[in-house]
## 1
Amino acid sequence: MITYENIDVVFDDFHALPEFNLKIEEGEFFTLLGPSGCGKSTALRTLAGFIDPTAGDVHIDGKRVTHLPSQRRQIGMVFQNYALFPTMTVRENIGFGLKVSGVSKAETARRVDEIAASVDLDGNQLGKGVTELSGGQQQRVAIARALVLRPKILLLDEPLSNLDAKLRHQLRGQLKELQEQFGITTVYVTHDQDEALTMSTRIAVMNKGRIEQVGTPQEVYMRSATEFVCNFIGDVNRLAAGTVAALAGHARENAEAGALDARSPSYLRVEKVGLHTPDDVVRGNGTRLMLPGTVLSRQYHGVYSSYRVQLAGRDQGVVKGMLQETGHPGFAAGDPVLVGIDPADVLQYGDAGAETEEAAAQRTASAPLVAEASR
Amino acid sequence: MSTSVRKMLRSPLFIVVAAVLLWFSAAFLVWPNLRLLGEVFAPDGKPSFRALERLGSSQRAMDSLRNSFVLAMVLSVTVNLVGVFIVLATRYFDIRGARFLYLGYATTLIYGGIVQVAGYKIIYGEQGFVTNLLAGAFPEMDRAWFTGMAAVVFVMTVAGTGNHLLFMTNALARVDFQTIEAARMMGASTWRVLLTIVLPTIRPMLYAITILTFLGGLGALAAPQVLGGTEFQTITPMILTFANSPSSRDLAATLAIVLGISTILLLGILNRMERGGTYFAVSKVPAALKKQRIENRWANAAVHAAAYLLLAVYVLPPLLIVVFSFTSASAISSGTLSWESFTLANYELVFTDYQAFWPFLVSIGYGAFASLTVVAGMLFVARLLQKYRNKVSAAIEFVLHIPWILPSTLIALGLVIAYDHASWIMGNVVLTGTVALLGITYVILKIPFTLRMLKAAFTGVPDQLEEAAAILGAGPLTTFRLVLLPVVAPTAAAIAALNFNSLLDDYDTAVFVSHPLYQPLGIVIKNATAEDTLNDGTALTFVYTVLLMLITATTMWLVYGRPSAGGRRKRAMAAPPADSTAEPANPRNQRN
């Protein structure tokens, strides 16, 4: 188990990690997620031993390692740019750690072959220089190099960010499979919410050096604890005052719809916005408020299309919604639509930045992720 | 104490390197210059301005000061005119045979300093081949026509354009061609584009070259000494003259200090300009420059003619030197060539006669010793300075740059004065007049260039390589040896080669500190120019020059031009970051 205990990291006048506390369980695939400069890499590098914290302690399996050199922490790491040694071959790169720790040549060769096979590197590639490999192959070498020493913990610092989209998707799955195969506690740093949601056991969403929320991917997405997390994860609408007032009124009239505070900042995930034709017979639980509007624009994404809709009521603003592409023509700019919103789907954050408990409880039994196409 | 300083002081490697550096800096960089100041302003231990008064009353000294500044200013104009022209002719305008022209102009990169000056003197001097030819046609002509300020300016102009070939060419290549296309689309002519878009864009580089040229003119030694005659002597030859007489050593020191102050002021201006930034790469994806056609037929012909005329000026001396290196002294002096004149005897002599080979051996010995020592030492220093960035490391770095901000003449003179008697800082060993002093001086002079380039090379190595090695179990020394050193090795080898090259024909430093029995090539070549007649010594000088050109060209090819993919890959890996230090070094004109 990894524990950050009251860690402070200060660079000159900049407080990168103030009072940072976190526990990561054994065998977890734990992700530190946040925007650039939020301190996620600093947290990772503190665990690796590259940064000496100004205060606080880091523990691994109950042992204090705060000032222990990196090489004695039994940690493997894959860097963002892979950090492969450019003057060495693939085999020499993977075997470097074994060489410096005095493992015999024969044993080094055996272990290098073994780990290379597990990351799909063949014997031919082992003899090549690392600059002769593609980005994906280099990444495999970096993973093999990190795993060959059989570390207790694997650190991954945005390892997919240098790859193209297709390869990134492919390697996500392979990374997760490797982690499960080796059963190794993994700490992953990324700013990509898709990566975090698809790969992690748990996620810590970070902002300005602080943890905003720790939870499973579902918890973080469906029950975003703070306004920041709600905005950072997924695509959301910030509802205009008029829309919130209308929804609050609807909720008061309909006890099932839950209560809303008309003054609180209110958000609605785009997939929770229902788009219907004005003459549509709306299916559902009857708690939805139907608001008339006009389609401003449509963007085609292949699997779905997203729409911007101008609501007709006073101060009701614009909302974004999406419809799965099922072969129907969909809406065009200028089409009249009915926008269906369930007050229970609205995420509200008070001054303390916490979602109202009632709203959160209402959302637990959530609606389908993609609004039904009703046209 | 900052975290960085504390961390630095915990490193045993840093402690050892710092202790050696502290002694080295105190003994060779600070103390000699303080002694020099003492010689001028406190000759008897009491403050005195007598040396300044003596300098003011010395007509020769004041003339040399004036001549130096005049030379520097004239060169700033002539070198820029010729330099800009040859770069535009070979890299900007669509001129036929541009590659060939560039190769011809680039002879200045493999042929300069005392070697070039001696070559010009031997060819154009009173007994020179060209003068003999001309005298045959015009018996009344003044045989000493190639002397004085005009000759000095001519030779130094040709030599000085090497900076344009390297630095301006590089700057021109970074001009975004889309800006030129945009100007063209708006109706700008070829000349207007050149004057309003291209030249203003590379203006910072031109300013920098101008200051380097000005400094070169100010501290010139070989050209004024060999070609200046009695009427045109400048500061450095005068320092040498004064330094050779014990009664006027204070004048030599005063002139050296004047030269040093001027250099510091000008380098200060240069640094300010560098900080002002450049105008390159505003666009995210700059387009490569395409050569521009000169639309006007007459202008095109005039530019072609001027380019090929200049080629002749550049190529004729080295070409004649190569030819005459295969002939006897009599053929050289008479200027008559026949098949019978050609011989390999000069080369045989150099490689078989110990006496003839000795200066070459001395130069190779000093060059190899200094270039390897300075690179080996600076590898550790550069790594530590790049790793630990704090006030202590900044102070160390500044001290190590002293040889860059002071002229080599001043440093050499400082060492001569400081160690002509037993001194505790040197363990009571007298260095002046010993074989060691020239080697030490070479090491000192090469520190700033080596440090700057190696630091840039280490900066170009991603920190993650070191972190990856550490997390895989390697200690700092293992990481340095197995990971960092192999990455910077190609750069280190290139720096060593460039250092070696620039020291092989050194004259300016050797003339102050070399041992009489261990005189390097530069001094021997200079002495050959003092002969009234052309003799076997002249033929040997030609052989030395050809060999030096071969060595320099080979080094240049190894450093910049080797086409192998592996080499390219390794160089790319060790390439310094894209800042001013990434500019290619001019092997003939490294600032010491």
## 2
Amino acid sequence: MNRRGVGYGLLLALLLVAPYAVYPVLVMKILCFALFACAFNLLIGYTGLLSFGHAVFLGTAGYVAGHSIKVWGFPPELGLIFAALTAAALGWVIGSLAIRRSGIYFAMITLALAQLMYFVFLQVPFTGGEDGLQGVPRGKLLGFIDLTDDLNLYYFVLAIFVFGFWLINRTIHSPFGQVLKAIRENEARAISLGYDVAKYKLLAFVLSAGLAGLAGATKTLVFRFATLTDAHWHTSGEVVLMTLLGGMGTVFGPVAGAATIVTLQNELADKVGSLVTVIMGAIFVFCVLVFRRGIVGELGALYKKMTGAR
Amino acid sequence: MSEIFGIPIQAFMGQLMLGLVNGSFYAMLSLGLAVIFGMLNIINFSHGALYMMGAFLAWMGLEYLGIGYWPALLLVPLVVGLFGIVVERSMLQWLYKLDHLYGLLLTFGLALMLEGLFTNIYGVSGQPYTIPEELSGAFNLGFMFLPKYRAWVIVASLGVCFATWFMIEKTRLGANLRAATENPQLTQAFGINVPLLVMLTYGFGAALAGFAGVLAAPVIQVSPLMGSHLIITVFAVVVIGGMGSILGSIITGLGLGVIEGLTRVFYPEASATVVFIIMAIVLMLRPAGLFGKEK
Amino acid sequence: MKRKLLNAAIAALLIPAASIAFAQAKPAAVKISDGTVKIGVLTDMSGVYSDLGGQGSVTAARMAVDDYVAQHKPKFKVEMVYADHQNKADVGSNKVREWYDTQGVDMVTDVLNSGVALAVAKVTQEKNRIMINAGAASTRLTNEDCSPNTVHYVYDTYALAQGAKAVTKAGGDTWFFLTADYAFGTSLQADASKAVEAAGGKVLGAVRHPLNASDFSSFLLQAQASKAKVVGLANAGGDTINAIKAANEFGLTKKQSLMGLLTTIVDIHALGLATTQGMMFTEGFYWNLNDDTRAWSRRFFEKHKKMPSMLQAGTYSAVTTYLKAVQAAGTDEASAVMKKLKELPINDFFAKNGMIRIDGRMVHDMYLVQVKKPAESKEPWDYYNIKAVIPGNEAYQSLSLSRCPLVKK
């Protein structure tokens, strides 16, 4: 317990000083994807549901936040909340269809429904199609904090991330989270104990969708645009990769994974030319074959081994 | 002129025919997925990439080695099947004891790698592959000019689908296969080499995708992205049909091709989404899929 | 890693300050920030547009820099960086922001993919640098989203649609459109329809197909049934390629002609002449136009093993034009360079008497081309007959119709 507390403190301290050492916009992007991956991890790591269409929540919320702030003139905080709620509502619709099947079917259904929404976004006028929804103003938080300043925005994004991270951890360690874990371990037994498994799964799905939406909305605020890429199935694949690489079912894993992948994409952009896709695919294969515990999982195992040997 | 819903009956029949052509591709691909799923319990995400690879190998054979369409139709599925066997032996076989989701993730990574490699070498706009001489031209069916090659696609794919069904349902090998699917331990105890069967099954599924790729090469530009455009729709087809039966996935594939074709006439705006909408409806009414069994 | 970035950031802050001090000490010297003009090529190297720009654009830009340095021996150093935006607007805009802030990049070029281009335009304006866009198609760059820091150099959807006018006048006066069902396709169709009607033609109908439809036979049957003389393809890339392929297979091209609204030499090369012969479309550049274009294109071919697309040729021209403007302005400060860019006429192998307008649009002649029959083609890549030259002021949307706030009416 104490060890984890030290971990939290260290991470927070690191994030507080990060914008002075690294490019703030890049760190903000990492935070957005880290929150996205944490939300995804709530499903795969703690409920055992693999959603292969999670990008749809990131994308939807991005568009909703962008549209409500730019066209309807919502203040940023209201735009974010509204977008997250919309994503949660969409999560309820998609979730209630998808939980009718489990395992691999669940993955395929979420993927197909996300693809459906992708085509909708491509066609409806307000998203700007492949041009994207551009020029979203960052505005003033609560009417007086100017978010056009990168540092102000950074601490706002950090606050959102900490909130999301806290909420997920709170959920995992609550009685509700314990039931989710029970479902992951043995669904039949959870049912026989009298739990309404479908309801629990759906609730977890909605929560995860809402938080993924919060990440997407925040991303729109950071970059001032929302584009189709965020709703594309490649992004769904990326979040799976982040979580897998960082460590499924670990608290810090998705954060580590997101930081690695986003940095890698940024760094590789001017180095390997057209090989980016191949490299991402290779990391996937490598993780599945020999690195299933992920970065954080392996580190944890190493730590246990060392302390155990003493 | 007689009409159906404001569309001349000729045009209607023509569209029906074209829908059937597309349905043949859906049928072949979803059949491959179903065969692999039945035996290995994994969803082969790289199925689209294998289909793309089949088309590319056909093109490469012609370009570099002068191998024509007909030999390619036989050779390419063999090569793709062999590739599948290598993948199964070197990677997939280590994952059977784990959660089935890892198989999905592994094949997803493989798909990305294959797509990336072909893009890197050949670029994205693709390569042309001409229709073989014997099959160029068109049949006059009265209500439409059906290009001979499209007719051939229907015949060839139905033939392959039927052969697969026959092999699995009516032969000794198929019986072993079905037994191994039901209860691998017991089948192994009867002296049947189950790992060998598993390996061959994956190779066979891959070969089916490769065959579909060669069939598609003359009608669709051979491009690294051709597989990923198709695979998600095929997944939806699989969910609609349920992966319980061989015949089921063939019929679902053909049927959805036809429905999609008709959507292109009556409401083209929805032609990309209609399969997914049907999937949602089927899930509400019959979660196990049209031909699936609740487990 | 972090320390490296920190050092870079400090250097980026200090060096301009030092060089300004230096420049003030010697007023005759050219006022170039850190003594170097740095050009960034942002392109798609791995995705759907990588054949159109990609590595070829990087090669073209590199040639432009080398040629300029060799010919003009400028007093400033010229450097070049490039990056792959992977068709992700966030990766693209982040990279460009980093270039501007930490690497002292003065100008970015290529920037294909409209979504990325619009995002980069915003960053460029915020940081007061220059984007000379050679790759994106959207007219939004010089209309709603125009900026004093953007030049749109090679083509846009409006110009590509203007070839329809010449085709209509030549007798192709009834039209049917195959339109990609998203903003890009519908705006192409709208512009082309206007051009057809202005020339006295008639649009009989249109059918919308989804992105990446791969099978076009059903839509083509509908086009065939319309009996229109010309079938306009309001789509791009893989969709155009597959539509042409199917049109050929179903014998549509025997009675009707095809007009591409965003077709390039890359598509023709991918399909071959046998499939594409007789098809018409608008191009901003063709390598086999005259001795100048041939001379440059052959040099490009030596390096890239493919003839240039209009984007790649345009990238070369854009880099050269930019460097000339820097030389003329005596500084790399964006507004001064932009002033020169908009003053100097552009005359090179790519454009004759090209002008950059107040809205950032580079206006130059476009070409209506028809694909040769296989027998007419004398050498590899000999693909087009030029049917008409569309003068720049007719090809591009007139300023009186502009929705750009920079244009005072």
